[in-house]
Amino acid sequence: MTTTPAPAPSAASGDPSVEAAQAALAGEHACVYGYGVLGAHLPDDAPAALAALATHRARRDELTALIAAAGAAPVAAEPGYALPSPVTDEASALALGVLLEERLGGLYADLAGAATTPELRELAVRGVVAVTVQALAWGGAPTAFPGLDGRV
């Protein structure tokens, strides 16, 4: 699944804050799609998957509103996303969940660094924390610097 898309062009003419928000929004779109796939393979964790999906939808909607308020057209969801590997059972669904959350963590970390308003910075920080907690819930490994591990 393409969960680390390039920032979409914005009406804010290269505003790094808006571009980072667009990238996080594109990541949220990918997560919403991914949770539709992985949720079908988590019968015992269906309520947890539905709760995570609702959270991603809410953050997607919040990002959409903030981007529009900045005068940019929010990036639209793709019609579909390529999965990094087949999701055929609970183990592969959990692995996809971890991957989605970890990749989104990087996008929110980028947004926290680029944010120029308190609202956007708060959303970014809340996003990093939430995706890190969710990745751990799906079986991910704890990291010293969520969203920044493995980056220069």
Gyration radius over CA: 15 Å
Class by alpha and beta content: mainly alpha
Overall mean pLDDT:
89
Provide a count of the helices: 4
What CATH architecture do you see?
Answer: Up-down Bundle
Helix-strand pattern: HHHH
Q: Poorly predicted ranges (pLDDT <50, ≥5 residues)?
A: 1-13
Net shape: globular
How many structurally independent domains? 1
- In the CATH scheme, the class would be Mainly Alpha
CATH topology: Ferritin
Distance between the termini: 24 Å
CATH homologous superfamily designation: Ferritin, core subunit, four-helix bundle
Largest sheet data: none
Number of strands: 0
Fold blueprint:
Layout: H1 16-38, H2 46-69, H3 90-114, H4 118-137
Helix pairs in contact: 1-2, 1-3, 2-4, 3-4
Protein name: DUF4439 domain-containing protein
Domain DUF4439: 20-149
List keywords for this structure.
single chain, 152 residues, mainly alpha, Ferritin, 0% strand, globular, disordered N terminus
